[in-house]
Amino acid sequence: MYDYIVIGAGIIGLNIAKNLKDRFPSSEILVLEKEEEVAMHSSGRNSGVLHAGFYYTANSLKARFTKEGNIALKEFVKQRGLQINECKKVVVALNDKEVEGLEELKRRGDANGVELTWLDEDGLNELYPNIKTHKKALLCSSTATVNPKEVTKEFEKVIKEMGVKILLSCKYISSDCNVVTTSQGEFCAKKVINCAGLYADNIARDFGFCKDYVIIPFKGIYLKDTKNESHLQTNIYPVPNLDNPFLGVHYTLTVDGQSKIGPTAIPTFWRENYQGFDNFDLKEFAQIIYYEAKLFLTNAFGFRSLAYNEVKKYSLTYLKGLAMKLTKRMNHNGFNAWSTPGIRAQLLNKNTLELVQDFVVESDENSVHVLNAVSPAFTSSMPFANWVVETHVLKDN
């Protein structure tokens, strides 16, 4: 009998295990992971950007945890001697309407306590001669990039040192109350914590949760310039459409000096639809195509045009063209290789057909289910894990 079983060894699951072990050193904690190593999915396939927290409304969990998480992860990375590139971020505008968007981001940043600096066109040109904007831009000095797989594996190392047991290649099959059946046998715990990412909704339903939601997967890929022939100096972002959770095509400077254009947000037809027919699952296909068809027919949140425009990004010329609107004379010849794809586990409200933009967790005295841990979940992982433990794991103890 374990005190806690955590399903999923991504950065959220590992941090929840760490948080519990910090609080209760004598507790018996088991982390179950279906893959052969940690960080095989979203935690190891994201952009590695440590976001600052100015995109989100002040009353959202994302606003709170992103700012705190940026500080906490930087401290963790530096303490553990991991790679970090404190390369900042510039958000630019293409027209007067987008300048209004910049002003809204500044208001949100001020409300969230995130330091943002206004730059006019001359000031931007002095700092970054190849970046283009209309009238003004926002500079965020706290944005940085890390290696997400390296960071997640370091959390694995930390919790192993603390005495947490991690069982790899152990696939969840079913549950009966708090007895979890896996490919490696049955395990029992006082409380089960579901951090299964793309499969969190399926597992939650086994416990009687997630009645109003379903996870819809979106594939993100970047176009890489491995030698940084573009001489990118900082992350460059457009003004996002604040009505959906995607940030638009942008430039990212990686921790090892590569530059990337992207990502896409292409709707996929099963949960681990990374390439071709890999990991095809007929039941998943039927479920997801049903909801995507509903979204297409109703055009909820502009899904029809979103899907069409995202598929067009498979064209290198089209994707580069979107990015080039943000720059002047930058050399784009080096952007010629696709990155490893990642898939966002995006929660959809089945009743309203809206994409849920904030974190969602459901729980009772027996189990906790992290249903929506979308971007910037990587940045937010440490304070978010603390909140999950305080608000959900311990509330019925």
Characterise the protein shown here.
The longest helix is centred in the N-terminal third of the chain and has 19 residues, at 61-79. The protein has eleven helices and 23 strands. The two termini are 16 Å apart. Strand 22 (360-363) and strand 23 form a beta hairpin. The protein is globular, with a radius of gyration of 21 Å. The mean pLDDT is 95. It has 397 residues and is an alpha+beta fold.
| Secondary structure: helix percent | 25-40%
The DSSP helix count reads 11
Q: How many E-type strands?
A: 23
**Biggest beta sheet summary:** 8 strands, mixed
What is the radius of gyration? 21 Å
Give the overall silhouette: globular
Q: Span between N and C termini?
A: 16 Å
Q: Uncertain spans, ≥5 residues at pLDDT below 50?
A: none
Could you say which structural class the secondary elements and strand pairing correspond to? Answer: alpha+beta
